[in-house]
Specification:
The structure holds 2 protein chains of 2 kinds. Chain A is 54% helix and 15% strand. Chain A is an alpha+beta fold. By secondary structure, chain B is mainly α. Chain B contains 5 helices and 2 strands, in the order αααββαα. Classes of the chains: A alpha+beta, B mainly alpha.
Chain lengths: 891, 111
């Protein structure tokens, strides 16, 4: 526990149901128990306290009912004598009123269900990614550790630094490193299969707080190269591959050509697909003695479990101090520090989180519109029922009683709407889960207890919001006035009018804000997806080829494999050009590093400009359609004979050599004593990453010949095949299998589909946003139409008199339309202000999205105005058809 | 309270007995734990508080506020003591039950 638990506000409110002399002592008892037993952090304790407060309050309510019944049986009091009795009477009365007007009830419940459902669905998404605690013990003690430098706040670590951090820190119970791996499984007589896993240091599972289902995790002895031929399976993979065989320990798997022994199986609770992705197995992260000291290459992710009682702030300070002291010993570390963040934040990136909050915020407007609609409906009904209220007041009902009666009705409606909204939210969430996690078994957006609580909260709040004003008006029932008004056939009091007008203005404004937000976001997303990234996305088919095993430890062997692969792919039917690289330029390139410019003063390591470094085959730029601006592309001669060449992008050329040609200049890599100079032979267009809305951490790009770098672990192939002929995938697989049957080929798909997958989460939120906006628009239009139509009905008598006195149809049309139009226009003006604010907000949340779009903005405002005017026009036209005789007779 | 004590509900008896076991240290949290410990079944906090409140209203219990502690967020503790009327009601309830049980054992054995 990190400090005394404070009572959540809801608990106090609930305990208000208890007799006064018990409230404080009960709260004290609960606090005492919450403080005594460690229940997994202060948040959990507060939740527990709240749940107990609910139980206790419910018990006292039940007791009151029981007591009320007892007394009723013995004393036969007048109805409504006890508090409970009168509440029951209110409820019964409200239920009867609802039944008596099934149309009103249905519209109200449905409107609320849509409004609350939109919010509940969006809350479920946020809950999954942001609010819900990770499913590990004491999850608030789990944190990620990142290296920071002037270029990025989220770098990985070198092995040397990681082991120093692990040994020298005093704030972590366990500090572990991990790195995703994709081993090839090649069992005898089975096709090679690419698996997904994580290589981890010894205490990984202890840090998470997960114990093996069978067997064990890894020991520190297994962190050493050569002693690492062990594997731990995930529950899912164990079930699939071994049918859940309990005697799996000791069996062996052939991974990347090496036999490894199964030493453990982890329970399903170890997996968290949203956090770790699809994990089949865990391997030890092992190091040679030299590798353990290495500070040059940074490739390790790190996370840890804080010691009990250590706050993340304190740990942050301690780790920053540790980093500073390490930087003094090791010049490579200069300018770098460490940054901690809760592990749960890794579930989503900044852009994703921002877009989720944005969508959630706009969903709130749907609910506001729904509330305004219902308030309007309630107002109309209150007016219509003013006589009823007046009569009840005359018969002795107090103000509070009338108000409570009206509020009970609103709450009953909103609770029914809330219940229905859960079903709606569940359907939406299932749809989202299917769209988002089709390839990620076990991952889902879940409807849990907190979602339920949120829906309940929404219902009660909306019930209060749309019920309180009509309730207040009802409570002011004035017998004389109500009866007089009725005789005159006029509508309701002046205050009703003002309120109804305000609600219309609000509804239009909210709808416009909602539409602007959704419209600009969707338009921006569409424009982003079709921005020219500097290469041609469409018509490319891509696949990953793994290259693992003893046979390929020699760079020359890898190069030979790549060259043969390229040769054979080029002659496949329908393939125009072939590119090999280490990644698809969809989310960014795989690796980067600091460089120096020849002849310039040399900055310290951490302050060197960070440059993407991508190994590419000779025809890469041709195949992807990247424009060569200057110099030449790579040729087959850029191999071992002439390895030190590089092609850079335009931004890099301008930044390093402004106003002069970059071709022939040199950039350097590595420390001074091992410096390699690379000569710039060409300059190409900047390449954009169309699958990522985030800002890349550097805009400088450099390309090296694949033959000179010979990346290990595999390559990505991209085939320019505009018609994507059928059988291309099979041909691809055959080609790789012909070259080496032990190598797996995986993720064969079009690059366009990769781009769409990259934006998948965000564009799905965009779809939701669009749906919310449509919903908001429909609700607002229904609301405005309803109010205008109601006004016409109420003023039928007046219109009849006016027409009898010589008013023309146009005058009547203007009488009704004019009021509606001026209110709507006021709403539009306010909405434009709000929409502008929303646009600016969106711009600051997702800077890469092209949201400056006055045309779309203007069209939305105009469109809404037209729709709203139409909603006023229809009832107004009906008013002109009023027959004066009929109207007056009605009077 | 001159009228004869009424028959206590089962849970009311449990609560009164727990308070008697606890003596001076009797408050709701301890009473609930005592019931759970001795009967081996769960007792909801709500039920305990409601019953305490009801028994006090019936005049079977008296209560007073004890000093607040920081662990309780500075809130006072309400302590309970069984009054002679409560004791009489307990005795009455036990006697009633015993009268109902008397003579049943031989017959139960036959069933």
């Amino acid at each position: 526990m990190t400090g005394p638990v404070t009572p959540p506000p809801g608990a106090r409110l609930l305990l208000g149901l208890l007799p006064e002399d018990l409230r404080e002592p009960v709260l004290g008892d609960l606090l005492e128990e919450a403080n005594d037993t460690a229940r997994g952090g202060p948040r959990r304790a507060r939740l527990w306290l709240l749940s107990q407060a609910i139980v206790i309050a419910a018990a006292f309510l039940a007791e009151r009912v029981r007591r009320g019944r007892l007394r009723a049986e013995t004393e036969r009091p007048r109805k409504g004598d006890t508090v409970m009795g009168s509440i029951r009477q209110d409820l019964r009365y409200a239920a009867r009123t609802m039944m008596a007007a099934p149309g009103f009830t249905a519209v109200a419940v449905l409107t609320l269900a849509l409004g609350i459902g939109a919010n509940t669905a969006m809350f479920s998404v946020l809950n999954t990614y942001v609010f819900r605690a990770l499913p590990y013990p004491a999850p608030d003690r789990l944190v990620r550790v990142f290296r920071t430098s002037p270029h990025s706040q989220s770098w990985p670590h070198s092995a040397g630094n990681f082991f120093d951090h692990r040994e020298q820190n005093d704030v972590f119970e366990h500090l572990v490193a991990f790195n995703p791996i994709g081993p090839n499984l090649s069992q005898p007589a089975e096709p090679a299969e690419r698996l997904r896993g994580i290589a981890v240091t010894a205490d990984f599972f202890d840090a998470l707080g997960v114990r093996a289902e069978i067997g064990r995790g890894f020991s520190r002895d297994e962190e050493v190269s050569g002693a690492d031929n062990v594997v731990v399976l995930s529950h899912r993979f164990w079930m699939r591959k071994f049918g859940g065989d309990p005697n799996v320990l000791g069996r062996s798997l052939r991974l990347d050509g090496t036999d490894v022994t199964v030493v453990g199986v982890m329970p399903p609770s170890a997996e968290h697909p949203l956090l770790w992705g699809n994990v089949h197995l865990w391997r030890p992260l092992s190091f040679t003695p030299e590798g353990r000291q290495d500070r040059g290459s940074n490739w390790l992710q790190a996370m840890g479990r804080l010691k009990p009682g250590v706050s993340i702030e304190r740990a942050q300070d301690a780790m920053a101090r540790l980093a500073a002291s390490l930087a003094e010993q090791h010049p490579d570390n200069r300018g770098e520090s460490l940054r901690l963040e809760p592990l749960g934040r890794s579930l989503s990136d900044d852009v994703g989180r921002n877009v989720m909050w944005f969508t959630f915020g706009l969903a709130g407007f749907v609910l506001l519109i729904a509330c305004a609609n219902l308030a309007n409906l309630q107002l109309a009904r209150t007016a219509a029922r003013s006589r009823e209220y007046a009569v009840r007041a005359a018969l002795g009902a107090g103000r509070a009683r009338l108000m409570r009666q009206s509020l009970t009705e609103s709450l009953l409606v909103s609770l029914a709407g809330g219940a229905l909204s859960l079903a709606l939210a569940y359907a939406v969430v299932t749809f989202i889960s299917r769209r988002l996690f089709g390839e990620l078994p076990g991952a889902e957006v879940a409807v849990d207890l907190s979602v339920f609580g949120f829906a309940l909260l929404c219902s009660v709040l909306t019930g209060l919001v749309f019920g309180i004003v009509p309730a207040w008006l009802a409570s002011r029932a004035d017998v004389g006035q109500a009866l007089r008004q009725h005789v005159r056939g006029a509508t309701s009091g002046r205050s009703h009018h003002h309120l109804r007008h305000a609600l219309i203005v609000g509804e239009v404004a909210f709808a416009l804000i909602l539409l602007t937000g959704a419209g600009l976001f969707l338009k921006g997303l569409e424009r982003f997806a079709h921005l020219d990234p500097g290469w041609q996305v469409d018509g490319l088919v891509t696949a990953n080829v793994a290259l693992q095993g003893e046979d390929y430890t020699e760079p020359a062997r890898r190069v030979a494999f790549y060259e043969q692969l390229e040769e054979r792919l080029r002659i496949l039917p329908g393939v125009e050009a072939v590119a090999l690289a280490s990644s698809q330029p969809v989310w960014g390139f795989r690796s980067s590093g600091g460089v120096v410019v020849e002849g310039r003063p040399e900055p310290p390591t951490a302050e060197r400009p960070e440059v993407f470094l991508e190994p590419v085959s000779t025809r890469y730029f041709e195949a992807l359609g990247v424009r060569l601006l200057e110099g030449r592309a790579f040729t087959p001669q850029d191999t071992a004979d002439r390895p030190d060449v590089v092609i850079i992008n335009e931004t890099m050329a301008r930044r390093f050599w402004p106003g002069e040609s970059a071709v022939g200049k040199r950039i350097g890599r590595g420390p001074l004593e091992e410096r390699r100079w690379l000569e710039v032979v060409g300059v190409v267009d900047d390449m954009g990453f169309p699958g990522d809305l985030g800002e890349p951490y550097t805009r400088l790009q450099a390309f090296r010949p694949l033959a000179a770098t010979a990346p290990s672990g595999g390559v990505t192939v991209m085939l320019r095949a505009p018609t994507a002929p059928e059988g291309l995938e099979a041909a691809l697989r055959r080609t790789v299998a012909d070259l080496d049957p032990n190598q797996a080929i995986y993720q064969v798909r079009t690059v366009r589909s990769l781009v769409e997958a990259g934006l998948g989460g965000v564009s799905l939120l965009g779809t939701m946003l669009g749906a919310f906006a449509a919903l908001g628009l429909v609700l607002a239009v229904i609301g405005i139409y309803g109010v205008t139509a109601y006004t016409v009905t109420q003023r039928t008598g007046e219109i009849g008199i006016r027409m009898a006195l010589g008013a023309q149809r146009l005058d009547v049309l203007w009488l009704i339309l004019g009021r509606g139009a001026s209110l709507s226009l006021l709403g539009v003006v306010l909405g434009i202000g709000g929409g502008y604010a929303i646009a600016r907000l969106l711009e600051s949340l997702v800077p890469t999205l092209p949201t400056r779009d006055p045309l779309t903005f203007g069209l939305i405002a105009l469109g809404l105005t037209a729709v709203v005017l139409a909603a006023c026009y229809l009832p107004a036209r009906r008013a002109t058809k009023v027959d004066p005789m009929v109207a007056l007779r009605y009077e | 309270m001159s009228q004869p004590p009424d028959f206590l509900g089962e849970f009311e008896q449990l609560v009164l007995l727990a308070l008697l076991h606890l003596g001076d240290a009797a408050y709701a949290v301890a009473a609930r734990e005592e019931i759970e410990r001795r009967t081996g079944r769960r007792a909801s906090r709500g039920a305990v508080y409601v019953t305490l409140d009801r028994l006090e209203k019936k005049g079977y219990l008296e209560s007073w506020l004890a000093d607040p502690t920081p662990r309780r967020g500075g809130r006072a503790k309400r302590c309970f003591r069984v009054r002679p009327e409560g004791l009489a009601a307990l005795r009455h309830s036990r006697a009633t039950l015993q009268r109902m049980w008397t003579g049943l054992e031989p017959r139960l054995r036959e069933l």
